[in-house]
Design a protein that fits this description.
Elements lengths: L1 H19 L2 H10 L10 H9 L5 H23 L4 H12 L18 H12 L8 H4 L5 H13 L11 H14 L5 H4 L13 H13 L6 H28 L2
This protein binds heme C (HEC) (2 copies).
One heme C binds next to helix 11 and helix 12.
Length: 251
């Protein structure tokens, strides 16, 4: 019984791979899960786990194969010496075509500073940066592959996310940004030199990341931490929310 179902599921995956390539599986995962994330960054993990409650064995196997397909696709792209574009394709399932993300929990990588990209990937690899999925996904990549992907994403055009913002919150955010953040995140957070591009980045991602800095689960330099702490001490979550609306409002 189990064998037959497993056999059938595998046969389907194999024929899908033959027809469209392994990437098709990643696309399916993206369509089914990534673009319908619930509203927080742990949402995807929780969502994926709850998907495993399928009543039939087929549902369960289908789910496991899909999840496995994502991991296998990531690993196989990493193992083959290929072009930077092909390496970056393994990320498109979540980070979007050429790194322009369409899911609010997932940051856009297009236009990212290459050095910052490398420190992010190394941070995930070493488990030092707060992460839901990147801790596992970054592991298979060599230093050379990371450099190649960083150069590729740095060349892509950053496209600001289209999202709703509250003008009053954004206004307070602008004030806070100018007081605490502009010195390093220049031009209202759009320069992204040595750090991520904040202006036009997905707000859900920014909010989760700022919470990570505030709680210390994502390490950063003392100065940056003290600025985030200053905002949180004075305004609590309202301050973070305001900053996020300011960055989200930048087009
Ligand atoms: C399953 C979805 C998924 C896939 C596939 C994926 N990522 Fe990510 N990525 C995320 C999420 C979610 C985050 C936020 C951190 C976290 O929660 O792990 C992230 C964060 C990042 C960041 C940090 C960006 C910033 O602004 O700080 C980088 C860099 C990154 N990913 C690179 C990659 C690369 C390179 C690949 C392909 C090899 C990849 N990701 C594949 C979901 C994914
Ligand atoms: C002293 C310079 C400095 C100041 C001031 C500073 N930052 Fe940063 N910020 C950085 C650097 C460097 C990074 C990238 C590496 C890291 O995570 O430490 C970063 C990263 C970030 C990120 C993560 C971007 C991503 O793509 O994941 C966010 C969000 C952020 N800063 C927001 C802020 C906010 C909001 C303030 C003001 C309250 C602020 N920063 C003040 C230097 C600074």
């Amino acid at each position: 019984m189990l064998r037959t179902l497993l056999g059938r599921a595998l046969a389907r995956v194999i024929s899908a791979c033959r027809e469209k390539g392994v990437f098709a599986i990643v696309q399916t995962v993206r369509e089914r899960f990534c673009e319908s994330f619930p509203n927080d960054r742990w949402g995807m993990v929780v969502f994926l786990l709850t998907q495993d409650r399928g009543k039939t064995m087929r549902n369960k196997i289908g789910f496991l194969v899909l999840l496995g397909g994502l991991v296998v696709a990531g690993n196989s792209f990493a193992a083959d010496p290929t072009t930077p574009e092909m390496l970056a394709n393994a990320c498109a399932g979540c980070h979007g075509t050429n790194g322009v993300s369409v899911g609010p929990s997932i940051p856009t990588l297009a236009g990212i500073d290459a050095d910052y990209f490398t420190s992010a990937m190394q941070g995930y690899k070493k488990g030092e940066w707060a992460s839901t999925v990147m801790v596992r996904l970054a592991k298979p990549y060599s230093d050379d592959e990371i450099t190649a992907m960083g150069a590729f994403f740095a060349k892509q055009k950053f496209v600001p996310a289209n999202q709703k913002t509250d003008p009053a919150k954004a206004k307070l955010g602008e004030t806070l940004h100018n007081q605490q953040c502009e010195k390093c995140h220049e031009n209202g957070g759009s320069s992204g030199e040595g750090a991520g591009i904040l202006a036009g980045q997905w707000m859900l991602y920014l909010h989760a990341t700022l919470d990570d800095y505030a709680s210390g689960t994502r390490p950063t330099d003392k100065k940056m931490k003290s600025k985030v702490d200053a905002v949180v001490n004075e305004h609590k979550d309202t301050g973070i929310e305001a900053l996020v609306h300011f960055y989200g409002s930048k087009k």
